[in-house]
Amino acid sequence: MDKAARAAGLHAGQKATDAMALVPGLVTAEAEPEADAAALTALVDWAVRYSPAVAPDAPDGLFLDIAGVSHLWGGEAELVADFRARLAANGLYFRCAVADTPGAAWALAHHGKGAEIIAPPNGQADLLAYLPPAALRLEPQAAAQMERLGLRLLFQIIGLPRAPLARRFGKQTLIRLDQAMGRADEALTFRRPPHPWFARLAFFEPISALEDLQRVSFDVAAKLCARLEREGHGAKRFVIAFHRVDGKALPLTIGLSLAGRDPVRIAKLLAPKLETIDPDFGIDVVTLEAEAVEPVSGRQVRLDTSTEAAVEDGLAPLVDRLTNRLGEGRVWKAAPVASHVPEQSSRHAAPLKPATGGGWNPEAPRPLRLFRQPEPLENVMALTPDDPPRQFQWRKRVHRVLQAEGPERIGAEWWRADIDTISVSHVRDYYRVEDQEGARFWVFREGLYSAGAEARWWLHGVFG
Amino acid sequence: MSGFRDGRLAALKAKIAALEAGGRADSESLPFGTPQIDDCFLGGGLALGQWHEFTGAGMEVETAASPAAFAALVAAPLAQRGEAVWVLRRDDLFAPGLAGLGFPAERLIQVCARDEAEALAIAEDALASVGVAAVFAEVEAVDLTAGRRLQLACEKRGSTGFVIRRRPYGGQERKTASGSAAATRWKIAPAASQPGPGEFGLGPPRWRVELERCRGGRTGAWLMEAQTAFTWEAGHGPHPLRLVAELGDRQLASAEPVRLSA
Question: B29-62 in b/e burial notation, b at 16+ Cβ within 10 A?
């Protein structure tokens, strides 16, 4: 109902013939409750971007539980502004209200003054006081009764004794009032996106033997994988939960490096972890959930069978075994990073990712072992301040340098930081030096030469 | 008579070779491309489908940089056949350094184990996997049982193990078993490099390489060089290691009269 319609004298609930009489050229459309409900459901699914808990309020409203999420937008006002802006961009004009309770928010959104009301914490009583009783979501006869008795504003009702109020208008009225004021809880039916990748097995008798757990973990995996296979999907993570008789659920998680749906492999990865499950009095339900589900093409005969087959049959299971045994981050492949800073020029990448083009410059010698923290050198002797060292002491051993190469000056990457933080103190002059035994080291001098200050030397790595 | 003797000898040698190969008829080898070195091995090169041990000396027992570099270069031609797995106890292997030496770091999966037993178990697991051509394991010591297990894992798929002996920082030296199931044992020490004529700085990295033990073959000592390291040709040559000089054979050297000096 927009402004133009209201100006023409139309209102919701008006008879179509009356409306036609007021506005002769009115275009009417059949009401489609199912389509409206479907649109509302779509809106609920969209609103999940603001809060994980969204409940539809048929026929034309939404409840969003924004407790603990509004700070992500910078505050409740910012969240509401963003919400409204996005809806307005789609041609949807909403009245929004933020309050402590769903009841108060509903009342303010439907009957409050203004399209956007944010009630301060515990401040809903003042805002609700001058709203009509209909704002409490009362049953029609109770609302009509109140109207007849001259109770036109809520503050008149709030002050009434509770027992007579309940007797006269029904218990529901009292509950609605308490829900709006925050004295009673209200259960909203939040819409959860259906989680389709889920399988469940229940047993007549509780099981507890390890062999049984192994068998049922394979059975439930086979059940889920059959569905994944049918619908052309695979998953990278599987969460199995053993539900004990006493109601406790014991979850286990395994990960795959490539999305898969082979129950034998899943059961194999689960097997070593099953020992940690304490069945207690027995397990009567087992559930398996697939996460990170993605489309996986079916089994395909490849022309270059030699390399691809190896990844599918050998490497992927090996990487999965190791990752599940050691934990994430302990299995990796080094990938180049475009950075001059040595310790940042290599990063840990997924072990089965195909190698990307580019690489490290082979003409810039880098050590085979790079220490995470450069180690300080003592008693360094150099001929002139910007010469390589002639002798240094590292780990209580004196090394005489016979040959040296350098310097390779590596500065801070000024383009990554603010202009104010740039300074020459983050310059390192790297030298490749060889001692009397032929051992090769990568040493650097910190900062530029300044008279009076002693140069500080560090050892960053050893060449083979 | 002499012909008969030679025939018997050849038959015996073949029998021993078959036993050494553990029943595998097709025991492959990886030649160095230098006859002086290749002649030391039974199969004309470093035996594949077995595991080899690389140790350092002095400072290297804790950093194990030279043995690791040498093992990587020995294994570099293998990386074309499949992935390589490097089992670490300490995450300090620097991939750009490996790439500079000429080892294809993009084919290397690195695994960081939490303790010695786990590192050996991972190495065993990786050796027995399809698609893995070479496995490097940085461990402190391999006892006879673990060595035998590694050997069995190697024989499963014909992949080759490279065990790099490395003591954890600050740790006490562990008593090592006298025997070893390794096919070969190498002792690698860095050697002074020689820059090319008219060049400054350091030359290509060099190592003093001692083949201390070689099952079915002879031992030897050489000075070797990674001639293409830190150039654009790294990793594209026939074999990344080049023989610079033959060092005195220790067995022969000990037979000579030792001149004692003050």
Answer: bbbbeeeebbebbbbebbbbbbbbbbbbeebbbb
Confidence of residue B21 (pLDDT cuts 50, 70, 90): low
Q: Is the preceding peptide bond at A59 cis, omega within 30 degrees of 0?
A: yes
**Chain A contacts of B191, Cβ < 8 Å?**
438
Q: How many CB atoms lie within 10 A of CB A112?
A: 22
**pLDDT, tens digit (0-9, with 9 covering 90-100), for A213-242:** 999 999 999 999 998 888 888 888 899 999
Nearest beta carbon to residue B230 from set A331, A365, A402:
A365
> For chain A, what is the mean pLDDT?
84
Rounded-to-integer distance, Cα B14 and Cα B2, Å: 18
Write the ipTM: 0.85
Amino acid (1-letter code) at residue A317: P
Quote the tokens at residue B208: 């003093």
Ordered by where they begin, the domains of chain B are 26-250 (3.40.50.300)
Nearest by Cα to A432 from A456, A408, A397:
A408
Strands of B89-182 (E only): list them.
108-112, 132-139, 160-165
**Partner-chain residue, chosen from A363, A372, A405, that has the shortest CB–CB distance to B201:** A405
How far from the centroid of its chain's Cα atoms is residue A130's Cα? 41
Q: What is the pLDDT of residue B253?
A: 43
At residue A324, the pLDDT reads 86
For position B150, what pLDDT does the model report? 93
Backbone dihedral region for residue A340 (phi beyond 0: left; psi -120 to 50: alpha; all else: beta): alpha
Distance CA B96, CA A368 (A): 8
- Measure Cα distances from A440 to A97, A433, B63, B100, B207 in Å: 70, 6, 12, 14, 11
Q: Which residues of B touch A370 (CB under 8 A)?
A: 92, 94, 97
Q: How far is B49 from B29, CA to CA, in rounded Å?
A: 9
DSSP notation for A114-137: SSEEEPPTT-HHHHHTTS-GGGG-
d(CA B172, CA A241): 45
User: CA B66, CA B71: separation in Å to the nearest integer?
Assistant: 8
For residue A369, list chain B residues with Cβ-Cβ distance below 8 A.
63, 65, 68, 92-94, 97
CA B203, CA B200: separation in Å to the nearest integer?
A: 8
Rg of chain B's alpha carbons, rounded to an integer? Answer: 19
Whether cis (ω within 30° of 0) applies to the bond prior to B205 is: no
User: Any bridge partners for residue B245, and if so which?
Assistant: B223
Strands in A75-120 per DSSP E = 96-98, 116-118
Which has the minimum average pLDDT: A119-123, A372-376, A438-442, A443-447?
A: A119-123
Q: Do A403 and B96 make contact, defined as CB atoms within 8 angstroms?
A: no
Judge whether residue B258 has pLDDT over 60.
Answer: no
Closest CA to A138 of A106, A98, A113: A106
DSSP strands (E only) in A249-385: 249-260, 283-295, 331-336, 346-349, 369-376, 378-382
The structure's pTM equals 0.68
> What would the pLDDT profile of A89-126 be if each residue is shown by its tens digit?
887 778 888 888 888 888 888 888 877 888 888 877 78
Query: Model confidence over A126-139: pLDDT tens digits?
Result: 888 888 888 888 88
